[in-house]
Design a protein that fits this description.
Chains A, B: One of its GO terms (cellular component) is mitochondrion. Chains A, B: This is Aspartyl-tRNA synthetase 2, mitochondrial. Chains A, B: InterPro entries: Aa-tRNA-synt_II, aa-tRNA-synth_II, aa-tRNA-synth_II/BPL/LPL, Asp-tRNA-ligase_1, Asp-tRNA-ligase_1_N, Asp/Asn-tRNA-synth_IIb, AspRS_core, GAD-like_sf. Chains A, B: It holds the Pfam family tRNA-synt_2. 2 copies of one chain form a homodimer. By secondary structure, chain A is α+β, with helices and mostly antiparallel strands. Among the domains of chain A are: 127 residues, Beta Barrel (OB fold (Dihydrolipoamide Acetyltransferase, E2P)); 110 residues, GAD-like domain (Gyrase A, domain 2), CATH 3.30.1360.30. Helices cover 26% and strands 22% of the residues of chain A. The first copy, chain A, is built from 17 helices and 24 strands. In chain A, strand 7 and strand 8 form a beta hairpin. Chain A is globular and about 95 Å long. In chain A, 48% of the residues are buried. The N terminus of chain A is likely disordered. Chains A and B meet through strand 1, helix 3, helix 4, strand 6 and strand 7 of A and helix 3, helix 4, strand 6, strand 7 and strand 8 of B.
């Protein structure tokens, strides 16, 4: 049952939500205790199971209560009714709370000391034969569970996830709104395309050829709110991103969207640390503040990624100096390039997983590897010392031209999974390691055309104060005031201090990014009318909650998620519409050729 | 300034929001008092005005503070900087709080006892010449104000409206979530067309010919949540309705969306009364609960509308019996029909507005009207008695065949406006009269084809328990369990107890409404798998807040509203997109013929 929530969700000590207000039930199915014995109660719930006409277990969102079916003649209709109620039917029961007979108490059940002797009952909605047993539901295919989402929602798991999400968001609101003077402002979701908005859904309007667009975030609006003097804004904002088929992404998702005037990076960081600490579920491991911080460069060098999982070590080490004297061809080759380097990770006890291995540290302190014949005694012992290798450790080497080593970063995570699959306790599954990653570059070379630059975050991000003058001379060297929040190796938030000078914003858009700034002219013009310095952040709520409840997918913390392909499998959306329905929007479908042909025949 | 909010927005006595956390300002511009004299403070704000290099007034969301510009040589740069800062520039000022010289205090200003002697200052963003003076902004055209919305947002009016909205919604959340165990669940906005969903925006998907639709409300989802055992759901839900050009409607709007299991109409009514009382702004007139209630039939008979403004009398009276003996042709004609009747409203002091009049009560108690020659002494005095006419009152008559009298209903409101324009105090502008309207018919004849029926509310509304059997014999006679909440003559909410039987739901859709139930098959099937009895309501948040703050339009309580034509005048949405951008969605624009021709030439 969902006992976790009792006493949760409110600042006021002693205040407990009243789940029985406005209805005729006297108690929920998770509420009754020995103290209630003798009371006449009315319960509503679903039939969890029923046994031989003797008793049944009634379930609601709060828990389970055992109902004793009367056996005497006077209550024969109640007996008949309850004995024949199919599993998952909705039932009202009125009866008297009694102690369970001695020895029949169930200490695993919060209501296990009592039972309710039914006096009257009513079947409110009978359940037809289920396509599967509810308790085995989690083992069924996800497609089936999504088709019958309303049945899956009855599971303890989803009830608990959705309630935790609701309560955590409520605490965040209390923190922002009641404690720190933030204003909850709703911004439009029908807007227009932004530069590079290829992932924005379009919404045809009644004006021929004109389309709204569903924004990927309220970025422009929150900045305009700061120009409008709102001072502190937040919103639990619905955002949209059309990425086609990507696993664990949803076409619509939710972010905790925040913006403040007159703030610097440290201010936003303290705000978010306070926010998470304030709203953190009581039954989870405590989180400590301030969160540690790491530069983008350190993250790439030591973890091979900009979102390091800091729950375990196995950092990437530079062993170029150790191997510089060796005869190994690829090592020498790599070191001959300007940014050439030799990096390594040492996998403690890596030998337990024999799928990947390069250099194994033997019990006698000697190394086992295809490479050892190229390494002298001295190099071997230096390697062991440099990497602090222990018996049965495995070292992975990477040689190459880049400062970053994303391959080793990925191997590091893969190795961790392998070790854990082999039974080694590497990462504490109950621990939450938050990390700030800061000092990102402002621009990165475009993947497709490295001579052109694109924003590492977005074009509104301000340069690092120390690098501001470099913007005009060597933009590739400018660090930004962008920061990411990482939790257990997942990016759960990101933000920046924004540009608040029209001239600088125009320079970034036109000269550095070579974008048409016309489409953003309203925002740039706003920066000329008294724009305060401002900055903000957005937290990915779906991802954050799924990490907190340790769910494998964000679909486990969304009431009605879409499939990989962006479909709603319960209501079958998206769906075909008639040409007449398209007419007011001045659009028609361009059928792919094969479908066109098929229709002709 | 925005003093109204101090001490607001939290349950905890003594708790005040900290507006200065996470930033380097020490105080807001509305905060300093005599108690602060001698303190060194740092303020950030906008230059409200500046006078002759002597002082300036700095403004933020909280208020105004007078800054004294230093005149001594040592601070000449500060003087130069502040004397030359254009109005609406953003400025940081550090200085010492001082008492104003005796006699120069400004009791109208909360900070009017003090001033800040500037020591250092910085222009953070200079404001270019404004296209208009901000203080006169409200007099400008609405189109201009919407184009420069970020300037309009700096007005006291919009700051105050948006903050009140945020805080009222926060209090609603506390009531629902913390006090009554409701779960805040987000539901999808990318769904599929519902039957009769002609007003739903479409969103093309990447599957050729398939479209999502932006739902008008989370109706289906909230019912499915009840089937899923969520028990108590709420959401501050973004909804969409494409109505083309309609004044004071927005293509996207917000509703407080609520659903409960095991509840009846009275339960929902008590919940909403408690919700509004709990969240009602302290500085507005108190509201009393329970709210009065009226049947749909009474409302139409007495007010000629289903959303009566009950702040004043002037009810519609049936005077058929008084005039039955008269010789007036149209009266006799009307009374000869089956539902024929003579209705009247008596406008107190109606003579002050001479635009409409029919029967005037003279000081001597005699009636002045074109009709008096047809009325005997007895009929005249009976009329005066029946309508309780006083000197200078005016009576409007309507004769016709219908039970409802929407013409008199409209005249009643129109007369009230005329009387108030003429200076008569008819409606207390600070009073809030809530009213429940209940017992609506379940079905109404379609306007276009009166032999067919449509749902008065929506097809999921349950019949009134007393009329349930009539559903199968004479559906036109069935009253529903639909209820509307009316505030000062405006519909601010509506809801119903829902059908929770699949058989009944199928009958209503297929047999009564003759709709294709296939598109709702997932919902109907859900009702066969243990659906609890349930009901709910939705409050129109934009309308509710605009009535509370007495704003002429819902655009005054929305940060970035759209124009009449559904356009965003600041960012110019909707906008043209390229054919390439449409390609992934398999659609093309069907240009109207004239535009096609124009393009050719």
């Amino acid at each position: 049952s969902v006992q976790g929530q009792a006493g949760w969700g409110s600042e006021q000590p002693g205040l407990v939500e009243d789940f029985n207000s406005f209805v005729t039930r006297t108690n929920t199915c998770g509420e009754l205790r020995s103290a209630h014995v003798g009371q006449k109660v009315t319960l509503y719930g679903w039939v969890q199971y029923q046994r031989q006409g003797l008793f049944l277990v009634l379930r609601d969102f709060q828990g389970l209560t055992q109902i004793i079916i009367p056996q005497d003649e006077a209550h024969s209709h109640v007996k008949e009714l309850l004995s024949n109620a199919p599993v998952e039917s909705v039932v009202r029961v009125t009866g008297i709370v009694s102690s369970r007979p001695l020895g029949q108490e169930n200490p695993k059940m919060p209501t296990g000391d009592i039972e309710v002797k039914a006096e009257t009952a009513e079947i409110l909605n009978s359940c037809k034969k289920l396509p599967f047993e509810i308790k085995d539901f989690i083992k069924k295919s996800e497609a089936l569970r999504m088709q019958y989402r309303y049945l899956d929602l009855r599971s303890f798991r989803l009830q608990s996830n959705l309630r935790l999400r609701s309560q955590m968001v409520m605490r965040m609101r209390e923190y922002l709104c009641n404690l720190h003077g933030f204003v909850d402002v709703e911004t439009p979701t029908l807007f227009k395309r932004t530069p590079g908005g290829a992932k924005e859904f379009l919404v045809p309007s009644r004006e021929a050829g004109k389309f709204y667009s569903l924004p990927q975030s309220p970025q422009q609006f929150k900045q305009l709110l700061m120009v409008g003097g709102l001072d502190r804004y937040f919103q639990v904002a619905r955002c949209y991103r059309d990425e086609g088929s990507r696993p664990d992404r949803q076409p619509e998702f939710t972010q905790i969207d925040i913006e403040m005037s007159f703030v610097d990076r440290a201010g936003i960081q303290r705000l978010i640390e306070g926010l998470l600490q304030h709203s953190w579920p009581e039954e989870r491991a405590l989180i400590m503040t301030p969160f540690p911080s790491m530069t983008y460069e350190e993250a790439l060098a030591e973890y091979g990624t900009d979102k390091p999982d800091t729950r375990f070590g196995m950092k990437i080490m530079d062993i170029g100096d150790v191997l510089r004297g060796s005869d190994i061809h690829f090592v020498q080759n790599a070191l001959s390039y300007p940014h050439g380097s030799i990096k390594a990770i040492c996998i403690p006890q890596g030998v337990v997983s024999d799928e990947i291995m390069q250099i194994i540290c033997r019990p006698d302190g000697r190394l086992k590897s295809l490479l050892t014949k190229f390494l002298g005694e001295k190099e071997q012992s230096e390697l062991i010392r440099a990497l602090n290798m222990q018996e049965d450790d495995v070292v992975l080497l990477a040689a190459g031209e880049h400062k970053q080593c994303s391959a080793l970063g990925a191997l590091r995570l893969f190795s961790a999974s392998l070790l854990e699959a082999a039974g080694l306790a590497l990462r504490d599954p109950t621990a939450f390691h938050f990390l700030w990653v800061v000092d990102f570059p402002l621009f990165l070379p475009k993947a497709k055309n490295p001579t052109e630059l694109e924003s590492a975050h977005h074009p509104f991000t301000a340069p690092h104060p120390s690098d501001a003058s470099l913007l005009y001379s060597d933009p590739t060297k400018v660090r930004s005031q962008h920061y990411d929040l990482v939790l257990n190796g997942n990016e759960v938030g990101g933000g920046s201090i924004r540009i608040h000078s029209a001239e600088q914003q125009r320079f970034v858009l036109e000269k550095v990014l070579k974008e048409d700034s016309e489409v953003l002219s309203h925002l740039i013009e706003a920066l000329e009318f008294g724009a305060p310095p401002h900055g903000g952040i957005a937290l990915g709520l779906d991802r954050l909650i799924s990490l907190i409840v340790d769910a494998p997918s964000i679909r486990d913390v969304i009431a009605f998620p879409k499939s990989f392909r962006g479909r709603d499998l319960m209501g079958s959306a998206p769906d075909y519409v008639t040409p007449e329905e398209l007419e007011p929007y001045h659009i028609q479908v361009s059928w792919p050729l094969e479908e066109k042909e098929a229709k002709k025949n």
